[in-house]
Amino acid sequence: MKWPYRYDLLQRYRLIEIVAIWEGKLNAGHLIEHFGIGRQQASKDINNYLNEIAPGNLEYNSSLKGYEPSSDFKPVVTSGVVDEYLQLVQRNSDLTSTFENLVLGFNHTTRVPLPSFQIKPEVLRPIVKACRLGERLEVDYRSVNAPNKDGRIIAPHSIVHSGMRWHVRAYCEKNQEFRDFVLTRFFDIPESAGKATISPENDDSWHTKVNVCFKPDPRLSLAQQEVVANDYGMKDGILVITVRAALVHYLLQMMKIDPNILHGKPTAQQIVIDNLEAIEKWLFK
């Protein structure tokens, strides 16, 4: 399939949609500030979007001096979910914190700073290469439970973000199973150890998809449960998230749920797992 738009154009069209949807007003200034392009190019991009990408999606409002979504607006180059706007805000926050004088718009938004887990390029490069070429690596990997220098051979196949940390999914020859390795816990530079002998296709929990069902804590009042269901965008009081079985535990961590503990106050946890028995086999022991 041929890629329909140049990457730089696609990024500009996506910005047009995201800003229009979530801010309700778009003008050439958004593109000028965000991409550093001239007003003529910005106007051309908006016109191309209106004429070629999504006719009828935007309407010009002279009182706003900009475009707003039409009543028939339908996302074409985005999914139309709020995460796209929030991710855009986060990227801009990262840039403006690095380049203090950079003006990219979105000055009315901010986010809580999180720790930046440092991953060395010289550590990540051979891991990415091994994933791509199906190679084994000799690594020095250490953990809190095993902090001493520990050489082992792994065969990585995927890089994973668990919500807070980056991991690599790999077959561990020492433990003879597929495991997750935190990228910040590799010491020294991984060294090539030849072709992998275990195929990623054998990683059953990676290739198995699991539905994790959440519902409001039934100990809450019906009115409270309605608030929680609205928070999470539940349908008929249930939120279903499909995830790789190998990542179920990380999902629960992100949702702040310990499957072994029911919080004493229902207002503290607010949601519970509705199908715990179905997912128990995939949880970390």
Textual characterization of the structure:
- The protein is of the alpha+beta class and 285 residues long.
- Helix content is 35%, strand content 23%.
- It has helices at residues 7-23, 28-35, 39-53, 82-98, 121-133, 204-207, 222-231, 248-254, 266-269, 276-279, and strands at 58-61, 66-69, 135-141, 151-161, 166-172, 177-182, 186-195, 209-216, 239-244, 271-273.
- A five-stranded antiparallel sheet has the order 6-5-4-3-7. Strands 9-8-10 form a three-stranded antiparallel sheet.
- Helix 1 (7-23) packs across helix 3 and helix 2 (28-35) crosses helix 3 (39-53).
- The two termini are 43 Å apart.
- Mean pLDDT is 87; it is low at 95-104.
> The biggest beta sheet, please?
5 strands, antiparallel
Gap from first CA to last CA:
43 Å
Computed CA radius of gyration, to the nearest angstrom: 24 Å
Secondary structural class: alpha+beta
Pattern of helices and strands: HHHEEHHEEEEEHEHEHHEH
Quick one: how many beta strands? 10
Global mean pLDDT: 87
Number of helices: 10
Portion in beta strands: 15-25%
Strand order of the largest sheet: 6-5-4-3-7
**Percentage of residues assigned to helices:** 25-40%
Low-confidence stretches: 95-104
Shape: globular
Walk me through the topology.
Elements: H1 7-23, H2 28-35, H3 39-53, E1 58-61, E2 66-69, H4 82-98, H5 121-133, E3 135-141, E4 151-161, E5 166-172, E6 177-182, E7 186-195, H6 204-207, E8 209-216, H7 222-231, E9 239-244, H8 248-254, H9 266-269, E10 271-273, H10 276-279
Antiparallel strand pairs: 1-2, 3-4, 3-7, 4-5, 5-6, 8-9, 8-10
